[in-house]
Amino acid sequence: MKVVIFAGGVGSRLWPLSRKHTPKQFEKIVGEKSTLQLAVERVSPLFKPEDIFISSGERFKDVLYEQLPQLPRKNILLEPEMRDVGAAVGLVTAVLAKIAKNEPFIILWSDHLVKNVEMFRQVISAVGKNLERDKERIIFMGQKPRFASQNLGWIEYGKKEKSVDGLAIFSFKSFHYRPDHDTAEKFLHSKQYFWNPGYFGTTPGFLFSLYKKFAPEMYEQLLKIQAAWDTPNFSKKLSEIYPKLQKVSFDNLILERISSKDAYVVGADLGWSDIGAWESLKEALAQREDENVTRGKVMLTEAVDTLVFNYTDQLVVGIDLNEFLVINTEDVLLICPKNSVPKIKKLVENLSGSPHEHLT
Is the distance from CB of 104 to CB of 124 less than 8 angstroms? Predict the structure, then answer.
């Protein structure tokens, strides 16, 4: 079994910590390791270094090599130009279809928090064992929902089909992305939905066949890249072909078009959180909703449900802060209410072309 960890995003919702040249997956958001390093660490007991692949961008090559010296260089697949996740998944699938066509592989993301690591590994093992016997499937890995989130995707599952290592494998029914409040409440109480972390397992051969079926033009170009893999001509071919691939999400290209009979769902309490935005990081790290979360030199008085991350040697003092975010870096200080987080991405976009563009 092999695993691919995607690490190519920019993460503007975690600005000013996450920026174009130093995205969130390379930063020490939780503890003293980057979220990418933590993602590799979580799977290392299950996979040898030669079975761990990273998908990212050419511009991040140096930091990838620095943070992951244990991985073979050729396992770090570098896109010459970002073409969205549809092309990125296609690239790794083409490569793996050449070297391990019928061997199960798992797709994960580098900017998440997983607290229940043993359960996470148990789910991955169960997915791998099922795919050894049933190679033409996609198995989605769900998180048992903790609340009625309107910001996440949800997976609807059906009846129990089988059990692997004590974990139930369900039939797949449908995806639902960012439901409204009432719909999210209905999902939570129906007991037929998981949160969708974007994790799944399949085989390269089967996934590549879906590219052939649903994206034949991209498939033909990926075949040319595949033919050059592990040859001196690979970088040249990749640079010539990859930037011309369609820029499209993987969900739109493949996942939303698959038949329910081609997929299963397995879910558990992984302690998973998408820490792609400050308010979701706050929810992931706090034991209680009203608890404050701090990092660095911080002093809070009469504060409730507030996150303060200080990356400087200054002391940050907060008084009477209720549901606030304070992020202090060497060149930017961000202060806003928690419910203003969606405006951060727009603010960063507006910095382009301004005197402060270098801060993006």
Answer: no
